[in-house]
Amino acid sequence: MNTLNIKDIRDLKEKLEKFKNLIENYKNKISQIDSKINNFNNLINFEINKEYQILIKNKKNLEKIITNYEKTIQEIRDLEDIFELSNLDQDLRKEINENYKVLQKKVDNIMIELLLDEEYDSNDCILVITAGAGGTDAQDWANMLYRMYYNWANKNGFRFSIVDINLGNEAGIKSGTFLISGENAYGYLKSEKGVHRLVRNSPFNAQNKRHTSFALVEVIPKIDDNINIEIKEDDLKIETFKAGGAGGQHVNKNESAVRITHLPTGITVTSSNERSQHKNKEIALKILKSRLYDFELQKRIEKIESFKTKQQAAWGNQIRNYILHPYKLIKDLRTNLEIYKVEEVLNGELNPLILSYLLHKKLLNTNT
């Protein structure tokens, strides 16, 4: 932006003020969390309780968002007051421009955080990049995307680590799996799921001809491996009956056999081999716990699979075009956002695209 005016600053403030009601809701949520936390004071060893730890974490996250929001609103107001001073000299005007650019990025980041309210948004994420149609050019394109996300992670305070990488025969990568760790990593990067298309003059073609390449980006939330199986007494239907046998003296005349049904899942287990009803119940509960673990594990696998795209990295499936020739343009086909500073995006400046996607998604959800 060449010439900054007072309207630009006020527009920036208005963008944030649209979320004022949400901030008030967050303050009410903190009050509710505080009430729940106080209930733990009467429990023994409450500080190591998992639910308690989740409450504390949620409270800290909400307080952080509110503090950043209120601080940034005040910084914009201060900038507005300074700008309205008469006879601004050139040095002060330059300083205001620089502060405005910083505040622009702050506002984008805060708006993104305020829009991240889905189940797995706060999780770390697994990023899988696979070269598609386009040969060596596609493998080079996959490598460019890998560098783009690496730079984005570094600029935004996330940890980026390589899980697995399969190098291309001549250049780039055939595929790569990466872990991005940090608060809201999945929420930020879920917008990147899909096929990315690159158009450029090929550096791998002797005639330097125009070439189109594709790469598939999959974004999967990292789900905690620890499955905590808690069996509540109210969720169980426990039946006792006489254990069967060959007849005569082998028939158990007491109701020692136990059948336990887990009502929420419908899983039923039976133990009848022991003479003691207590022992059969103990064995049945152990089997039930194992069955429930397997049930939860299968649900988790299905959930992870649901995040994977079935699209092919080829023409017609792309979510975003990156055009480097004959002109420079990045266009997101879901939101129609166009960015002409292509090099900045490829160097990791993804937040405008992320914010546009989240706002577009929220608008769609509001209208449905």
User: What is the first-to-last residue Cα distance?
Assistant: 36 Å
Number of strands: 11
Multimerization state? single chain
Q: Within the CATH hierarchy, at the fold level, what is the topology of the largest domain?
A: Alpha-Beta Plaits
Percentage of residues in helical conformation: 40-55%
Beta-strand share of residues = 15-25%
How would you spell out the order of helices and strands?
HHHHEHEEHEEEEEHEEEHH
Q: How big is the Rg?
A: 28 Å
**Ranges with pLDDT <50 over ≥5 residues?**
245-251
Secondary-structure arrangement, i.e. CATH architecture of the largest domain? 2-Layer Sandwich
Global structural class: alpha+beta
Structural domains: how many: 3
Give the strand order, joined by hyphens, for the main sheet: 2-3-1-5-4-9-10-11
CATH class of the largest domain: Alpha Beta
Average of the residue pLDDT scores: 85
Plain-language structure description:
It is a single chain. The protein is of the alpha+beta class and 368 residues long. The protein folds into three domains: 6-115, Methane Monooxygenase Hydroxylase, Chain G, domain 1 (Up-down Bundle); 125-225 and 310-367, Alpha-Beta Plaits (2-Layer Sandwich); 233-304, Double Stranded RNA Binding Domain (2-Layer Sandwich), CATH 3.30.160.20. The chain is 46% helix and 20% strand. It contains nine helices and eleven strands. The strands form two sheets. It has an eight-stranded mixed beta sheet with strand order 2-3-1-5-4-9-10-11. Strand 2 (159-167) and strand 3 (173-181) form a beta hairpin. Helix 1 packs parallel to helix 4, helix 2 packs antiparallel against helix 3 (50-83) and helix 4 (90-115) packs across helix 9 (351-367). It starts with 5 loop residues before the first helix and ends with a helix. Mean pLDDT is 85; it is low at 245-251.
